[in-house]
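Practice set, problem 2.
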Amino acid sequence: MKRIFSSHLPALFLGMVFIFCLGGCSKETAPVSDNLAKVQVVLGGIDNKEVSTLKASSGTSSTVAKTQVQTIRLDEGMYLQANLTRLDENEQAGSVAGGSVSLKAGINKTKAVATPVANGIVYRVLVFDDAGNYVDQADYTVGGDMSRQFFVNPHKTYTFICYSLNGSSALAPFTVGAGQNLSDLTASFNIPYTSQVDNDLMYQRIDLPVVPGLNTLDVVFKHKFTELTAKLDGTAFGNITQAEVYFASSYPTVDLKLNTGAIEYTGWSGWVKEVIFPTINTPVIISNPTIIACPADDEYRKIYGGFTIGGIYKSFDIPGLTIVPGERYALNLVIKKDPSQLGNLIWAPGYLKYDGTTNLYSFTSNTGLGDYFPFGQIYPYGDPRVYDRSQANLGDPCLSINDGYLWRTPTKADYETLEVLGPVENRVVNGVNGAWYPTSATTGVFFRAAGYKDNQSSPSNPIWEPTNVWLWSQTSEGYLEEGSSGGMFAFNMLPPNASNTRETQIERRELNSLPAGSNDLSRFRGSQIRCVRNH
């Protein structure tokens, strides 16, 4: 029997199939043709790099130093130094559990290095066409079912808006009103005061030209809020038995402009966010990471709180610290006994010098040039006893300072303490170059670049490597003729580069053990000494 088919039926049937697939056809059943494009979502992670679109519109980020320092007097014998340091890309990625991962380029030809998103995190993807009209949306859970795909028309560019609160709770429903366009749409978020987890807003916009068949949408989120981790160091006094640190202000609600990723902070700005310390009753306590929703130019912004140490409670208030949204920060709060303290030491105001006429030792100003002492010798170059290696002429010259304090030559550990306190700067003070460690916003310990002298090179003792800061330590590192040993450290001051600006990288170097049988240069080499004392 002959079957008769209408010529319109095949086209009608294919149209019905296409419409059905637009409504949720799975990747196993969807036909792939020139009339259909599928978009598969692939989550790459979180990009922790500094991104210009996350900066404050006032341009604050371009003028704020990497580390901001303030020192506050709490009483006659106690000070609090606050170091707020913006973490760079490597530090930010390294601070996240799980490390970083490298992503391969997908159809959209993008590559990124990102930190993984934890399993259970919920995120949303919204789809708009090239005219900004709403097309579709879907929610995903990291580690869950990722089979949900978007079916769109090929040979067009679609905009995908991706956002998450970096939490496991379901996102609030998102609806699009009649006639609304992408440029008009915002998403509102509540930031609970008590929550320490579900409030880290992340966002990415992707404009993806789609082709027939399968397309890959590589999602790499960027932070929109600020993350702050605090450390309170009471080593100089003892165990911290109670601590409370608050950040003001943190807004309770925000609106996210979907088209651009811009944030509008809404609600009352007087809210504060508590920084939680999971473990106390130790000399050093470290907080959980705390998420803060606050613009860079907020007029109420400050960090305040209090702590109990040695049975005494002290409160503090630190205004004027600038926080840039989208960045990660480390807040280092050090409780000190002296405002010029670095770590657990007081550094002398300048280099050591000796007056042969009066037989007195003293310190120069912070930019002054002291004397060049051979290692382990209590007399410097220029004194007739400098070449006499008898026991009476050997020792630590810092012990000869007579001002009521017990000064000494620093150890290797003392120098390493400087390195962990924060970034060192190359700085010119009173016309001389040197290494600068800040103790407050306006004060610091300055190590003048002075090089070293080598008596074997010339009778006139020329100064070698004058752009370096060569300083003796008393730690066993190098070989000496008598069998004792010591180390020499240098903050390597680089000359101006091609752009006529000084490099900020400071390199510490050590004089390691010399080969057996070699001449001992240490006994002939003279360096500056910066004495230290304990509290």
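Problem 2, part (b): a different protein.
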Amino acid sequence: MSILENNINAVFDHNLKEQLKKVNQTYQIVQGDDNLDINIIDGGGYRLYDKPLEELNKTLNLYNDKYLLYPVLFFYGFGNGILYKALLQNPNHKIILVFEPDVNIIYTMFKVIDFSQELKENRLLLINPKYLNKHDLKAICSNNNIFNFLRTYFLEIHCDYYDDKYQEEILKLNSLIQDAIRESIIFYGNSPVDYLQGIKHFIQNIPKMIAHPSYKELLNKRKNLSDTAIIVSTGPSLTKQLPLLKQYQNKASIFCADSAYPILAKANVKPDYVFSLERTDFTSEFFNHDFGEFDKDILFIVKSVVHPNTIKYLEKKKSYGGNYTVISDPSNFIVNVKLDHFGYFGMGHSVAHMAYTLASYLNHKNIILIGQDLAYNDIGESHPKDYQNSSTFETDTYEHIDTIAYGAKGMIKTHYIWLWFKSTLENLIAADKFSITYNCTEGGARINGTIEEPFKQVCEKLLKKDLNKPFTKLENLNLNKQNELLLKAYYRINKDIQICEKLSKNFNDELELVSNDVDLIGYQNNKELLENIMYQINTIKTKVESLLMHSLCEVLNPLIRQFELNLARIYVLNPKTQEDSYNKSMLWIKEHLDWIKLIIAHIDSQKEVLQRSIVTTKDELIEKGFLNLVEKIEQRALKNVNF
């Protein structure tokens, strides 16, 4: 095969590969006296370089000095490609991502220089930014070799030609990459405090969870009862859709966000399901209402980590015939407690995600979105007029960002959290091969993957007959099964408490040994001792990382991920002298010692949260007459810690 064919076949990106196969124009190459002195004249007659060899050497000198140890590099512009051939001679550069908007430039150089080996090894990634979106960039960022160095990101412009011709495109791409980086980092979590609050609520909610209908019961009794689900969210546009929703409420399943529940009650539109997943007591207040008979036959579906106030308010609604079920997502800790009847499904980041997923699992062929603006309206309101916390509740909370409007009618203002929610919803829609999703919000942001049609038109097309409401009643597990699950959960949580205690002691002992050796370095400046300390620290790191398969995963994962991201900034430092090298090693050690202390503190925090939260379950068991079993469980958990 020719050099060109080898190069094209080695390109990883399928779209770029297909574009290269269709190119029929080669730009002019100007060859200087030196083999590396190659210039290109584009279709408009413009040269890419003033002095190709001089510019190449200048960039190589910079990268061999300041950026010698950077594993991941980002460039805008492919140019003659020689820079990347040269940089990839450095084994420290694992991946170079190059964004080139002009496929003809790549094609021109693919005919004369062989890049196939670098492309096959995925060390050189060529991307056409014209066909790039944030989903693609997030997929790139999720590569571990790239992810761990996201905090060292910068976008280098290949040469002045690209800066002059594509300045606006470069700024947009840089912004898109930074958004993708931020969302990728957020995906792994950055707040162990949130997680600890979640497991605290989960454990406190266990007795009520077990005493109510399970998720499995919900799936068994409610699948295939309706072809169409309407998911009601609280964007500013909701108010205008309420009269039509009321008219058709008996012809579709009504899935309602917690914040929309008081609004629907006021409009006398009865939802079949009301969802809640937030951990804050602020969100619980959406249920702090006495709507009397309105609540009859509504099933409130809440995530198992909701604030206990939510459960307290829902208990009051049972007197009017309302009911609730508590469902878990598949987090490591929760799965380890093994209340499998009450889980599991991924609920996303908002009640709309939770509602959409369940609507799909209940086999609705059509899913209609209303009030799903994910944007401000024309006068800056974030919510409907009758929203419980005011229509301008989030108007000034976040920086406003432009996004494509519903119906592609220009741009509309949103913020980065809503864009994150939108991205997650789009992923859910793309993955759902069973349902057709209609966005009948008639306002707000465009949601890719949906059919945009007026609510009235979709109702007339899909909702022809009344459903048999109220839907089938759900039953609780029998009392013996409830008691069995409660006792087993109590044992497993007690065992986790003992594991936390043992791990904390072991890590503290190892930390003390390493710290003593570090103190000796100050007196001895011993290279062998320095290497031994680094070996000890790496051994501890391996043990910490093994915990990511354990119930401690969620509290430690954000800490580990954030640490690796921050550590990358030390890793890429290029020491010039022996003293620089020593200082870099000591900085690396100090960062790790502080990190190990944080790991221990988080394990201790999880232990304390478990100890405090398990009291609710213990009291419930004692009230049921299981005091003797409680004492035996505690002793057994103490003895059976093998970690």
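Answer key, part (b): The chain has a mean pLDDT of 93. The first helix runs from residue 3 to 10.
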